[in-house]
């Protein structure tokens, strides 16, 4: 079972920052937080991951709370093409990605 | 330059038939996976292979048999198809076991009538 809780849906205006929250209160010390997204009718796409420090790449930023029980994915300037289902995944050092129900982000003009 | 490709994209078949879905990756990765996404959009891992060896088998029925002829290919053969097998099947690959990023294919939509 997925070890994360996410809101089922969110809206964001184009050009604004999209902040997607994720709760993972049972995360253990060796588990990473991963984010993937799935644009309609496509395969999932990796976005970012982190352990305890905040991370940033060309797609997004990941903010992890100090107690590591929650995190936020930030898309700094959302575009219409960012409309997708965003999955927050807690993963140990195995191969398994256990997807939950995700957050459906709708970016509107 | 398709990284992970799957064929066919759509597959419609009758109950009881046997069918195969093919997956190829041109990324030079060692590890490949099959995932199933059902009608409620839950995405679950089925199998993973590393260097042609089975690593993960998530209690998938024996009717599902993955075959990896080489590192670049992981095919999924399904015997005696059932209505509940209708889903979108995604192939993925990663550079190595537990690599950070998995690259997913476009999916194969299987409909069993």
Task: Describe the model.
With 109 residues, chain A is mostly beta strands. Chain A is built from no helices and 9 strands. Chain A has strands at 9-13, 18-23, 32-38, 45-50, 55-56, 61-64, 70-75, 84-91, 103-108. Chain B has strands at 4-7, 10-13, 19-25, 31-37, 43-50, 53-57, 64-70, 73-78, 87-94, 103-104, 108-112. Chain A binds chain B through residues 34, 38, 41-46, 49, 85, 87, 93-99, 101, and chain B through 4, 31, 33, 41-45, 48, 55-56, 90, 92, 94, 97-98, 100-107.
How many DSSP E strands of chain A?
9
Helix and strand composition category of chain B? mainly beta
Distance between the termini of chain B: 34 Å
Q: Tell me about the largest β-sheet of chain A.
A: 5 strands, mixed
Question: What is the count of β-strands of chain B?
Answer: 11
Q: What is the mean predicted local confidence, pLDDT of chain B?
A: 93
Strand content of chain A: over 45%
Rg measurement of chain B, Å: 13 Å
Low-confidence stretches of chain A: none
Structure annotation, total helices of chain A? 0
Radius of gyration of chain A using CA atoms only: 13 Å
User: What oligomeric state is this?
Assistant: heterodimer
Q: Strands of the biggest beta sheet of chain A: in what spatial order?
A: 1-9-8-3-4
Number of helices of chain B: 0
Strand content of chain B: over 45%
Broad shape of chain A: globular
Low-confidence stretches of chain B: none
Q: How many strands, what sense, and barrel or not for the largest sheet of chain B? A: 7 strands, mixed
Distance between the termini of chain A: 36 Å
What gross morphology of chain B would you assign? globular
């Amino acid at each position: 079972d997925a070890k994360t809780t996410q809101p089922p849906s969110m809206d964001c205006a184009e050009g604004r920052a999209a902040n997607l929250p994720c709760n993972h209160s049972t995360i253990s010390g060796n588990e990473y937080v991963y984010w993937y997204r799935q644009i309609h009718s496509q395969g999932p796409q990796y976005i970012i991951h982190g352990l305890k420090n905040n991370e940033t790449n060309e797609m997004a930023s990941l903010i992890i709370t100090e107690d590591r029980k929650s995190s936020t994915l930030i898309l700094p300037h959302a575009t219409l093409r960012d409309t997708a289902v965003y999955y927050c995944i807690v993963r140990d050092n195995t191969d398994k990605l256990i997807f939950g129900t995700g957050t459906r982000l709708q970016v509107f003009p | 330059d398709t990284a992970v490709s799957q064929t066919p994209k759509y597959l419609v078949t009758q109950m009881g038939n046997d069918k195969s879905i093919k997956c190829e990756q041109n990324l030079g990765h060692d590890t490949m996976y099959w995932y199933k996404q059902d009608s409620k959009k839950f995405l679950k891992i089925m199998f993973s292979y590393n260097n042609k060896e089975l690593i993960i088998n998530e209690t998938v029925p024996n009717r599902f048999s993955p075959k990896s002829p080489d590192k670049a290919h992981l095919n999924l053969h399904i015997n005696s198809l059932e209505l509940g097998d209708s889903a979108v099947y995604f192939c993925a690959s990663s550079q190595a076991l537990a690599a950070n990023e998995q690259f997913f294919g476009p999916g194969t939509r299987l409909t069993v009538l």
